[in-house]
Amino acid sequence: MRRPRSTIAFTILAWCCALAIAFPLLWTLLTSFKSELEAISFPPKFLHFSWTLANYRDVLSEGDYPTALYNSLAISIGSSAFALMLAVPAAWAMAFAPSRHTRFLMLWMLSTKMLPPVGALIPIFLFYRDWGLLDTQLGVIVLLTVGNLPIAVWMLYSNFKEVPVEILEAGRMDGASLWQEILVILTPLALPGLASTFFLIFTLAWNESFWTLNVTSTEAAPLTAFISSFSSPQGLFWAKLSAASMLSIAPVVVIGWLCQRQLVRGLTFGAVK
Amino acid sequence: MTASTVSGSPGRSHLRLSGRLLVAPALIMLLVTSILPFIVTVRFSLIDYRLLGPKEHVFIGLTNYTRLLTDPAFLPALGNSLLLIAQVLAISIGLGLGIALLLERVVVGRGLLRILVVSPFFVMPPVAALLWKNLLMAPVSGFFAWIASLFGLQAFDWFARAPLSSIALIVAWQWLPFACLILLTSLQSFDREQREAAELDGASPFAIFRYLVLPYLARPIAIVVMMETIFLLSVFAEIFVTTGGGRASSNLAFLVYSQVMFQYDIGAASAAGLVAVLFANILAYFLVRAVGRSLDA
Amino acid sequence: MKGARWPALLSMALASCGTGGDKTTLTIAMVNDGDMARLKSFSKDFEATHPSIRLKWVILPESTLRQRVTTDVAIRGGQYDVFTIGPYEVPVWAKRNWLTPLNDLGREYNADDLIGPIRSALTYNGALYAAPFNGESAITMYRKDLFQKAGITMPATPSWTFLIQAAAKIHRPEQGVYGLCLRGKAGWGENMALIVSMANSFGARLFDKHWQPQFNTPEWRNAVTTYVDALRKYGPSGAAANGFNDNIALFAQGKCGIWFDATVAAPFLSDPKTSTVSSKVGFAPPPDQGLGRHSGWLWTWAFAIPATSRKTAAAKEFIRWAAGPPYINLVAHRLGWLAVPPGTRKSLYTNPDYRRVAPFADISLNAIKSVDTSSPTVKPVPYVGAQYAAIPEFPGIGTEVGQQFSAAVAGQISPDEALAEAQAAAKRQMAAAGYYK
């Protein structure tokens, strides 16, 4: 209000930047409505082409989208929920009852993610074969839970650090048990942080395209497998791949849109006063 | 360490006990699921184990390691890993900060803007690489080539002239939202009174940014650096899709990947994977030293 | 009480999973090309005529499929009942007893109708180990209109020298037309497939009979220098990162004057729905250099049954249908002859209906027929394979060597440096695999 002119300038600039960042995705969206020949035409076609839904129709009839979507949802929600269930108590302990080892522990947790996934492929494959976990939702959920657990702990730790210790102590004085402290006092205070952590690891699980492809075949195959069946076949496939990409991105965008308030409030990492 | 924890009614030792109990589930889960494969990987790294080779796996000591360390592709891969991480961090944090500073001042359509800025985060890495390589960066028919042609310029041959930086650009695009969102939310809670007081004192916008905002952002930046680094260490899909690897673009993760995927040499891949873990730990050590203070705050 | 019921429930659940009401479920892993996608869309027809069998599909891009299937078969994961593999895998895997022989597919399958080189490439020790679904070689594709304008005619059997001279004449980068498109992207199934078969026609070979890599020979130097120079002079910018998919898009857009690549591209480029140059594209045999070997390669995606599958009978039933005459007739009847999977059966190429719609039929067939995977080179070699060597080490070597050649096309190193690195890399990997004791 004090400097409307510069605010307008900033707004316009911000919109330009945001559009530039989202451009590859918007371009993909546009491509998904083109024919294969229009998709590769040069100079590129913006709005003057014959819009078609044929790519979506083809993709939906060639691949098993409902099953893949269901698997993606089950795997992402399941693994994120498990990871949170394990991470909340751990992050509480690290934030409010730290020991000499806490910092080492936190770094060690991150270090479990340092082995390139493909390096552990054969050991995991052998275990999964023997335990009957290949091509099961449970098998994928376990892998993704473990993969995202360190991230969840780190994010929650940072969020919990912002909760004033005095509030928790006041609760303790009033005789609140440990569970009450975590569930009744801490959780509501850290809800935005929990929501954003959940969303972050949910998205990471949704996009995870190594394990989800390597330990599933038909029953538990999620959208990553769906989409890879449309990537680089022989012949032109850009419009189709764009449509398949849009179909697999859409659910996360919707979820992201619905919880973006919490997301933004929660991703503060020690900034909220 | 704060004095107040001592006086709490459950007592300090009780607190410590419950702390240990609560860390336990996560810890045990991680221990079991990472130590078991880790041990197997160590064992594999000491034997001659090729998927397409003979059934008997002979113990060969450290041969897999010496082969890796003497491989002329090893050092370039190590350098590329570092360069890739550095470039992606620089682009995603630099641009992310700039855009966060802009977004903070925006009054119209914040919600939509945020979704636009976050959107690259929703794209699976191999798909992102395919789309960038073919629809945008392709020098004959890509979108960037078209923009260059509008200005009468020669299209840039991305993957031949600057393979690693081109890959870094694609990866940075995917991680920009992460950096931007975290920095934006931190900025939004920056103490306005402090800034206004500084402005009244006649401080320039640059000085305010340099001496007030930037120190305030040290911690979120440190977190972004740590988290992104962990993920960037294992980037491989973008390399496989765009250039197919090589001295100019393979990183350590890609080396491990091609040992499993093309050579089916599990012994060598295990050794390379463990070297990658060692490398990551060294990197983490320096990172923690560099950014550690802001993590503890 | 409550606890005791669980095992019973569990075993019931397991039992119903296993049989699915007397139904056998086959899990089929295939590469995601157009022929396979079409096959999947016909699965209802198979299930209708074979009510006791249900089909489940895993469709993946070539590189992912190969890695998944190899891992699964090597450590006996048993996830698949049928998968598509090629002539590279058959000898290597059959030797390790990982595959079920397919000699008993019956009279109706008519194995004698299979094109000779395709059949022998999938045969190991006299037994067929995989049933070919589609087959390909390489073909020269060129723009008839540009040739005409430049006053050149394509000879019946072009040489590389001719192709490069022609490329120079039609190269008009300022108009967005590039003389020659070839694969440049690193990978043993990308640029190496092309370079190795090209090198065969230059008299080069991958290994001598003592398994010594040959990248330091004059033949290789000649081949690689020719390839790199031609692509740098007359290729599109970005050639070093172009694979099959990039090149088919370029040619379909009218950006390439000449393109030498897999025969599967031909139907796409002849179809006005997927090509802007459908009426202007001409076809010619793979180029040679007058040394008795042309640059054609041989590949086929073929169905095989892993030794781990316990549903062999049902799997064979499926293969008999999908890779046999019934399926070809079904597709031709429903979608026309151009949609039929090509390159496997002699009868297809004598079929007048197919010949009418496929102008590239004879060239494709001759290219396939003239590749002898057991004697692919001018000088004798200890391996089989035209654009590869069927040894476990080849993908690793091919990948690393391919990266060097790609770097040469990008101009990061010279062809001589690339060859020296290639020779060193191949030697190192062969030594590590224990070839030189």
Automatic annotation (TrEMBL), chain A:
Record's bilayer topology term: Multi-pass membrane protein
InterPro entries in the cross-refs: BP-dep_ABC_trans_perm, MetI-like, MetI-like_sf
The ABC transmembrane type-1 domain, residue ranges: 69-259
Pfam family, one: BPD_transp_1
Membrane-spanning segments: 68-92, 104-126, 138-157, 178-206, 237-259
PANTHER family: INNER MEMBRANE ABC TRANSPORTER PERMEASE PROTEIN YCJP, MALTOSE TRANSPORT SYSTEM PERMEASE-RELATED
Protein's recorded name: Carbohydrate ABC transporter permease
Lineage: Bacteria, Pseudomonadati, Pseudomonadota, Alphaproteobacteria, Sphingomonadales
UniProtKB/TrEMBL annotation, chain B:
Keyword Transmembrane: yes
UniProt cross-references to PROSITE patterns, sorted A to Z: ABC_TM1
Keyword Protein transport: no
Topological relation to the membrane, as annotated: Multi-pass membrane protein
Predominant place of localization: membrane
Entry's localization field: Cell membrane
SUPFAM superfamilies the record matches: MetI-like
The organism's place on the tree of life at top rank: Bacteria
Alphabetical UniProt keywords: Cell membrane, Membrane, Transmembrane, Transmembrane helix, Transport
GO annotations of cellular component type: plasma membrane
Record-annotated ABC transmembrane type-1 domain positions: 78-287
Membrane spanning stretches: 21-46, 82-103, 115-132, 138-160, 167-190, 202-218, 230-248, 268-288
GO biological process: transmembrane transport
Similarity section: Belongs to the binding-protein-dependent transport system permease family.
PANTHER family the record matches: BLR7065 PROTEIN, INTEGRAL MEMBRANE SUGAR TRANSPORT PROTEIN
Protein name: Sugar ABC transporter permease
TrEMBL record, chain C:
Gene Ontology cellular component list: periplasmic space
Domain of life of the native organism: Bacteria
Residue stretches spanning the membrane: none
Subcellular location: Periplasm
InterPro entries: Bact_solute-bd_prot1, SBP
Family matches, as Pfam families: SBP_bac_1
UniProt record similarity statement: Belongs to the bacterial solute-binding protein 1 family.
The protein's name: Sugar ABC transporter substrate-binding protein
